[in-house]
Amino acid sequence: MASLKELKDRIGSVKSTQKITKAKQMVAAAKLRKAQAAAEAARPYAERLASVMAALASKVSGDDAPKLLAGTGSDKRHLLVVVNTDKGLCGGLNSNLVRAASAKAQELAAAGKDVEFYLVGKKGRAPLKRNFPGQIGTHFDTSHVRDPGFEEAASIADELVEMYEAGKFDVAHLVYPTFKSALAQDPTIDQIIPVPAPESAADSPNTPGAVVEYEPGEEEILEELLPRYVKTQIFGALLEIAASEQGASMTAMDNATRNAGDLINKLTIQYNRSRQAAITTELIEIIAGAEAL
Amino acid sequence: MALHFELVTPAKLVRSEDVHMVVVPGAEGEFGVLEGHAPFMSTIRDGVVQVFKTEGGAPEEIAIEGGFAEVGDNGLTVLAEKVES
User: Do residues A193 and A164 lie in contact, with contact meaning Cβ atoms separated by under 8 Å?
Assistant: First the structure.
């Protein structure tokens, strides 16, 4: 049986933990709103780029298509680009991502492919390294900036395209969470290189058949556009991870705050009981002493 | 009788308005876009986009970096990587 003082200290420490989790929850809620706004603001660019891509890619196909669109002709070596958060305290978000990435890696390995990882963010590093020693290629550090933005996305994309051109891998997949709500962030795996052929250009703003003039030429434009498309995809993933991190953090901290409250209630009851027991014992001692006289 | 002009960056939709004419720094030379321009697409170099709100008025200049210009039925869309305002 813990002494009264120990119980009191315990209650105090749980209370201060609760304060921290509550503060973190509120910070996450505020940041979530910002992250969602940023994700929404990025949508027009991605949509327009996708529609331009669709219109162009349907025109340029066959042998003269750039390597980024057509692929290297083999699919032996796969690169998994896994986007994780830099900070913890966000529930099962990172472990879900790592699990999804591991499952994909095992599936590819079972099909006889070589798998390598390219990690973005700090948190996935340790578990993936443990599961797949020797397969971790590069990791991109985003911890020195507060909100990873387009510049980070651009440098990641540049590095990927460079590795691709140098023939380091054939296919790249992007693993990132899709923010559905504060409660649900599903890990998603998308192929980013070679750029998957977009759906038919029927829904593009230009009516099919309209003669579009290209300057300098269709292929040149497409060649410029593809790396940019990869950048946009990665930028989208960075925005999703930011929103997901805050959402998951909010939910996790809400649970933690509630658990701390329950624990405090339980400890307080225990504390009161021991206090009463102590008083009763004292009374009995006094009465027994008085009777003996 | 106006040209719908949109300037979009990855971070946000910078402009979406009806203007008279826009001069875009294309990779192979500057070009002006008026209403009813034929469908056209070009890469752009780093430079200044001039937006003429009215005919003969003074242009508003927006510095942009890297991207594309697309002219379609619904006007001119400039996708830029960076905009300095």
Answer: yes
